[in-house]
Amino acid sequence: MSLAFGSLAIGSASALTPVGTSMIARVTGATPSGETMPNPNHTNTNYDVGGTDLGIVWDKGGGQYFVAFGDTNNAAGNWTRSNVLAISSDTNLADGLSFSTMIQDTPGHAKEILSSQKVNNVEMTVIPTAGVTVGSRHYIHYMSVNHWGDPGRWYTNYSGIAYSDDNGQTWTKSSTARWNNNTTTWDNKFQMAAFLKDSGFVYMYATPNGRFGDVYLARVPENGMLNIGDYRYWDGNGWNANQASASPVAIGVAGEMSVAYNTYFKRYLMTYLNEDRQAIVIRDAPTPIGPWSGEKILVPGNFTGLGQYNAFMHPLSNSGPDLYFIMSTWYPDYNTHLMKATLTADMLGDNIISDPSFETQTATPVMAPWYVTGEGGIDRNLGFARTGQDNGYVRNGSGWNAIKQRIAVQPNTNYTLKGWIRTSANNTEGYFGARLVNDGPVIGETKFGNLPGYTELTVPFNSGNNSVVELYAGLWANGDTWLQVDDVSVTKGNNLVGHAGFESQPTSGLTSPWYANGNAGVDRNLGFAHTGANNAFARYDSGWNAIKQEVFVEPNANYTLTAWVKTSANNNDGYFGARLLNGGPILNETKFLSLPNYTQLTVTFNSGNNHSVEIYAGMWATGDTWIQADDFSLTKN
Q1: Do 382 and 233 have their domain in common?
Q2: Which of 50, 123, 218, 281 is the most exposed place for a label (fewest CB within 10 A)?
Q3: Which ranges of the chain have pLDDT less than 50?
Q4: Which residue, 95, 137, 94, 140, is CA-closest to 317?
């Protein structure tokens, strides 16, 4: 089975990322009558695994891979195990994914590696959601399911981490590395996870229980996986010890997630099931925090007719354009399959909007990820589109009518919204812009009247203290009034520095994303700023004192860092530059002496094989010495 996706033009030539999605082989279960694709493992006879799902793959070292599965039945169809685990040494996926063995408790019987009580409303099952290996220790993130709900909804007691020090034969559930759910609201953000090992950290992307939550992010040093206090949560600006501060890095609905870094494209990839779109989707980003692109269809809902879900990427895909992943189906047999798609150069990568030209709407009976206030929908193949076949519209005789989409943004950051709109002749009160969700306060918009032909509208906006905003194209109808919209985009501004002018710093002490060495803080409304009301400072009579920020970058890329700095008259040992984290090796810096007036300093550097760097302005104090800094900028050349 295969499906090719067409290209899509928005301004310049653009293309969806995955093409040629195809099913390569069965991974688990028996071969049904009439099925002709390979089945290298025959798990029903070799391991008494007649049905199972998931298939989370990670590199266990030594040229081998672990593959973890969820609820498992035996060859007779009885659900006997909550999870099983396979080992694979197969490096040629073109003809299927072969196991070397499965972890067994008796010969020919795959072992349940994580126990569960199997009692409804207590603990129905324990299901793995992610895996990673650090050194010789292996880790599995799992969820303890309290009970199953409606389709796509289930409720967890907690999520946790188990580890193995004997090559996966036995696993211990950590009693402290747990994220307890609220069993009244069931809304803890870290109940299902995907692991990514990167630059000395393990990043944990997570969603609430079920398939309808947004995507959140935490990270921990590799050696701190079992220390719950070592985890830091992305709050939209930086890393925060408070789990409740976590803000979305991508908008769901997201279920059964997988995340990887592809060295061929130098992009992070995220896959998950979007149940509202009835499709498995993929996003990509230049850094682990984003900005994540809009969703692109990896496997459409009508691909097999088998009720498919999840796309767990195989690490062998991480260095080339061929993406191999394990996908589950629930009909007619509950099992897993090896899939392949080819990734093309992603020219939509900077656009945060999902389905920006409404083209995937032809394959779904619902409007997600778009939604409407009032009356509206999708013109499917009616000849009204600006490009492609489809466009969005609203039309009514009265009231407010808008077509909308939520996106995740970085707080206090500049964005540009663009879209092409045309209207009925009687439109006098149309609006295109960004606001807080649920028709909240407007943060940027433009008003338009009659637009007889498609006209590009542009709205710059700053996200303010918000992590999620709502984009809209709408009108106040007066008689039969309509608008059509197509080819919508949102792109983040070029400056990678958060709180670059310190205007959003809430206290006189540096707060996320800024931090200090020695004695440093914020001059708030004291008249010392280069622009605006605030600036940063470092001041002391001895030692190294600096203002710093971790900024995520693309590896092996050239960047330009600037800031405005002035100093006390006695400063003779100041430095401005970029280095690796925690005072690591310097990538480049410039030394500065006394600067009686604000002076712009500039440093260019190459990021090397790094995904984040530390920018800084600081000085070695001798006597009462100070610097003031403002209006930082870091841009990719």
Answers
A1: no
A2: 123
A3: 1-16
A4: 94
The dihedral built from the CA positions of residue 217, 57, 282 and 319, taken in this order, carries a sign that is positive
CATH code of the domain in which 196 resides: 2.115.10
Distance CA 514, CA 548 (A): 6
pLDDT of amino acid 14: 34
Q: Percentages helix, strand, coil for the chain, rounded to the nearest 5?
A: 5, 55, 40
Within 10 A of 173 (CB to CB), how many other CB atoms are there? Answer: 16
Clarify whether residues 11 and 72 are in a common domain: yes
Residue 354 within any structural domain of the chain: no
Question: Which of 177, 227, 220, 168 is CA-nearest to residue 196?
Answer: 220
Task: Indicate whether 284 and 369 sit together in one domain.
Answer: no
Residue 138 bridge partners (DSSP): 133, 164
Maximal C-alpha separation, the chain? 85
**Left if phi > 0, otherwise alpha if psi is -120 to 50, otherwise beta: which for 400?**
beta
349 inside domain = no
* Judgement on whether residues 184 and 133 belong to the same structural domain of the protein: yes
Residues 518 and 440 in one domain: no
Kindly state the tokens that stand for 57: 């793959």
Q: What is the pLDDT of residue 8?
A: 32
| One domain, residues 191 and 318 | yes
pLDDT tens, residue by residue, 564-607: 999 999 999 999 999 999 889 999 999 999 999 999 999 999 99
> What string of H, E and C letters represents the secondary structure of 427-472?
CCCEEEEEECCCCCCEEEEEEECCCCCCEEEEEEEECCCCCEEEEE
Q: Which two tokens stand for residue 142?
A: 């799992």
**What was the pLDDT predicted at 519?**
97
418 and 557 belong to one structural domain: no
Q: Which amino acid is at 260?
A: A
Three-state DSSP at 88 gives strand
By the 10 Å C-beta count (0-12 exposed, 13-18 middle, 19+ buried), 465 is classed as exposed
- Residue where a domain terminates, one of 285, 315, 343: 343
Q: Is the peptide bond before 332 cis (omega within 30 degrees of 0)?
A: yes
Structure letter (DSSP) for residue 239:
E
Outline where DSSP puts E strands in 84-166. Answer: 84-88, 101-102, 104-106, 109-110, 125-134, 137-148, 154-164
Q: Is residue 348 one of the residues assigned to a domain?
A: no
Domains identified in the chain, total number:
3
CA–CA gap between residue 112 and residue 110 (Å, rounded) = 7
Final residue before a domain boundary, out of 281, 312, 343: 343
CA distance 635 to 527: 28
**Pair type for strands 612-636 and 558-567:** antiparallel
Q: Which of 366, 491, 442 is nearest to 11 (CA)?
A: 491
Domain coverage including residue 368: 359-492
> Phi/psi of residue 169, each to 5°?
-70, -40
- pTM beyond 0.85: the answer is yes
Q: Tell me the pLDDT tens digit for each residue of 220-241.
A: 999 999 999 999 999 999 999 9
What pLDDT is attached to residue 307? 85
Q: Encoding tokens for residue 68?
A: 């973890």
